[in-house]
Amino acid sequence: MTLHRLIFVALLGVFLAPAIPADLHLALHGEPKTLDPWLAADESADAIAYLTEGVLIRVNRYTQQMEPELAASWKTSPDGKRIVFQLRQGVKFPDGSPFTSEDVVRSFERMLDPALHSPTADTFKTEHGAVKVHAEGTYSVIADFPAPTASIERLFDQVAIVSAKAAQRPAPGLGPFVIDERRPGVSIRLRRNPLYWKSSLPRVDGVVFDIEQNRDLEYLRFRRGELDLIEKLSPELFDRLAKEMPGAAIDAGPTLDSEFLWFNESQRGDIPDAKREWFQSAAFRRAISLAINRADLSRVVYRGHASPAAGLESPANKLWFNTALKPDPFDPAAATNELSRDGFRLDKGVLRDRHGNPVEFSIITNAGSKTREQMATMIQQDLGKVGVKVTIVTLDFPSLIERISRNMNYEACLLGLTNVDADPSEMMNVLLSSASNHPWNPSQKTPATPWEAEIDRLMLAQAATAGYHARKTSFDRVQEILHQQEPVIYLLHPNALVAVSPRLAGAKPAVFLPHTFWNAEELTIAPGRQGGAQ
Amino acid sequence: MKAARIGAILLLALVAAGALMPERWAAGRYDQQFRELPDAPPSAQFPLGTDAVGRDRLSRLLYGTRVSLLLAPAAALLSCLAAGLLGGIAGYAGGFTDRAIVSAADFFLSVPWLLLLLIVRACLPLDVSPAASVAITFALLGLMGWAAPARIVRAAVASLMDSEFVLMARARGYSSWRVLLRQLLPNVTPVLLAQFWIAVPAYILTETTLGMLGLGVAEPLPSWGGLLRELEGVSPLDQPYLLAPAILLAAVVGSLQLILPREDYPV
């Protein structure tokens, strides 16, 4: 057989062979509680909605910039109360029906329906009322806000636009993929949306999410080449992967997430008066912050894959981080000085307050989190050096939430926060003194302290301002106050630790969620290359 | 069999001696953090290496052994005493009392103990010391573990009540107390002893389960359960020394089973 014939037979084989679907494989850590994009509130449901739904504006997870999606362009009014969208023309839903302004208007109407209880709808409701959306022609939509709203464009990244003609929800959306098959408790397969408006995308045939709660098994399956991506690796597994598959383990840098400790300053709950007095003292909180070795926490617990925190915002948030703030140094001597100025004294290795009470408190954290348990153990030892006795209590998550949000029966809590958006307005539900998630003293009728009143004022001001510089000034001051008062002792910003299979091309892990598959439509799977360990 | 028993007793004695004198073998206290050496492999200073925050694993293993070996028998004793009392009353009294106690035992057996332990732990005050928390955990295990042995004791007592020597004693007009103390108790004691030896490894394993869930003994106090958590997500082939607590647990539980002289019991 000549060389030409050989080549011809080989090419014929390639063309005649049945196409093997090139699916992207990854794991979800739980069954999505809903496939309705407007009701998605868990990580798994968010992942499905992200890949199957279309939005007007998408925040690029890598550049943090807004990009036109179903809206070809938009214009915000100078007072920040109105935004006019020009919709992309020629876009079709998977059932072939055209995408028009009616779909956008109907989507907002349905999402804002109080009977639906959509968590996304809360973002569009203010004390002055909800956003009003109306069409102006087939391809133009106007959204009117009752009050000036900061960064209003970013809010539209969360709203799935669903077909007005769809008889029932969830209906196939305008995202790059549509749901192909769901096997409860086992997997969910998404297939390429054949009418996706970005022609020639997505490049993979589908995405298969296997339901896999056990992260160790997820790791082993990645190593065997059965999974292509891991969204979140523990520092331990990350280091292991870096040794076993160099190149597959990627540290994308500090995330917007933070790990922190706070004291219960609420008047509710069964806390002795003496302890409440300590917890309400800024000097006490500052001293505790100075006595904690953040560098050790990062190096030992996170194996260097975390950075000491100066405040609630991470340096990863390039737009809003106050660069003037630096993390508190580890300085037990300064901590002792701070405490002595506040009437505390060291007596045979035991710190006592001005009334002679020994300083001891308990820290609660969620059971099962190795990193938090290790952090608590190290904090216990650090604080022991300044005479403070700490008891660590690990609780199952529901019990922990019950204590920190309802009965307030706890003294200090070590927990973390996952930030999904970089905008300060996303922090309103944590920073406003009236907020139910205000960690140290939730649901206040009036601010308990002058500095909390100032934070309230600044946060409301920035939310009602359209200009970036004015908002940045307000938010910088908020960060400064939090740094001075330390109602929350911010400890670390963990890095985004992910795994990307060597057979994948186009992956650009980002610090925003989703870290790995935010650009799933652009990912390609190299033919003939096997993932996993060789 | 006798040689195996002697071997088991020797092993337990060795483990107990090690646990009672950890400072003779280990480099530091169980809570001392050598932060410059986290996750260190075995060395002359740390024969089992250090854990994630740089604590000497050998020291923690020896202290953990002390905790588990002291408190598991205490919890077993508690549950056996309760079982002896309630099972004995049920078997002796019969009738409504018997039905009530058996129903209570059935109820306790049907309760998911892990869930109950979680609930009770969540309701405990937060300022209890690690030592108190471990004592409370084992006390709960002991109090909740009375039902199964109580049913066995009850069956044994009910069977003894029909035996000829008890009938004879009653026919002679002996008081109830005399029948209980002289006729029943000596015959039920081996049953209770057997239950005790069965309960000890069961409680060690229960604490291990709680420790694996992060709900066992509070930090920094070590226990076998807490130490076994280090095996999560780790290949034992890469770090075989991490298997030390598992091997010790298997050896101790196996030894306890060997010591148990099952064939000696007449009931």
Overall mean pLDDT of chain B: 83
- CATH H-level superfamily title of the largest domain in chain A: Dipeptide-binding Protein, Domain 3
Query: How much helicity do the residues of chain B have?
Result: 55-70%
The helix count of chain B comes to: 10
Q: Summarize model confidence as the mean pLDDT of chain A.
A: 88
The CATH topology of the largest domain in chain A comes to Dipeptide-binding Protein, domain 3
* Oligomer designation: heterodimer
Helix and strand composition category of chain A: alpha+beta
Number of domains of chain A: 3
Strand content of chain A: 15-25%
CATH class of the largest domain in chain A: Alpha Beta
- CATH H-level homologous superfamily name of chain B: MetI-like
Q: What's the CATH topology label of chain B?
A: MetI-like fold
CATH class of chain B: Mainly Alpha
Extended strand count of chain A:
24
Biggest sheet layout of chain B: none
Segments of chain B where pLDDT lies below 50 for 5+ residues? none
Number of DSSP-assigned strands of chain B: 0
List keywords for this structure.
heterodimer; A: 534 residues; alpha+beta; D-Maltodextrin-Binding Protein, domain 2; Dipeptide-binding Protein, domain 1; Dipeptide-binding Protein, domain 3; eight-stranded mixed β-sheet; four-stranded mixed β-sheet; 15 helices; disordered C terminus; B: 267 residues; mainly alpha; MetI-like fold; 67% helix; elongated
